[in-house]
From TrEMBL:
Source organism per UniProt: Dermatophilus congolensis
GO terms, biological process: response to antibiotic
Top EC class for this record: hydrolase
Name of this protein: Autoinducer 2 import ATP-binding protein LsrA
Pfam families for the chain: ABC_tran (PF00005)
Domain ABC transporter: 27-60
InterPro entries hit by this protein: ABC_transporter-like_ATP-bd (IPR003439), ABC_transporter_ATP-binding (IPR050763), P-loop_NTPase (IPR027417)
EC number: 3.6.3.-
Predominant localisation class: membrane
One cellular-component annotation, GO: plasma membrane
Localisation per UniProt entry: Cell membrane
Keyword field contains Nucleotide-binding: yes
Length: 66
C-alpha cells in the first residue's frame, strides 16, 4: 500500500479489535486504518478472521473491544 497523504480523511479506523469464538481469538488487538482514495485488500488462510474483520467493520459481528 502507498503511504497516505496526511490531509486525506480516514474512512475506516479500527483500533485494538478483539473477537473470540468459544474462547479462541480470531482478532486480537487488530489495528486498521484506510484513508480516502486508498485501495486495500485482506489476505489470509482459511479461518484467519478475514470475514470476521469485515463483518465487524460493517456492523455484522460486533468486536468485543476496539
Amino acid at each position: 500500500m502507498s503511504s497516505p497523504n496526511p490531509s486525506e480523511a480516514e474512512v475506516v479506523k479500527v483500533r485494538g479489535a478483539v473477537k473470540r469464538y468459544d474462547g479462541v481469538p480470531v482478532l486480537d488487538g487488530l489495528d486498521v486504518t484506510v484513508h480516502d482514495g486508498e485501495t486495500f485488500g485482506i489476505l489470509g488462510v482459511n479461518g484467519a478472521g478475514k470475514t470476521t474483520l469485515m463483518e465487524s467493520i460493517v456492523g455484522g459481528a460486533a468486536a468485543r473491544f476496539g
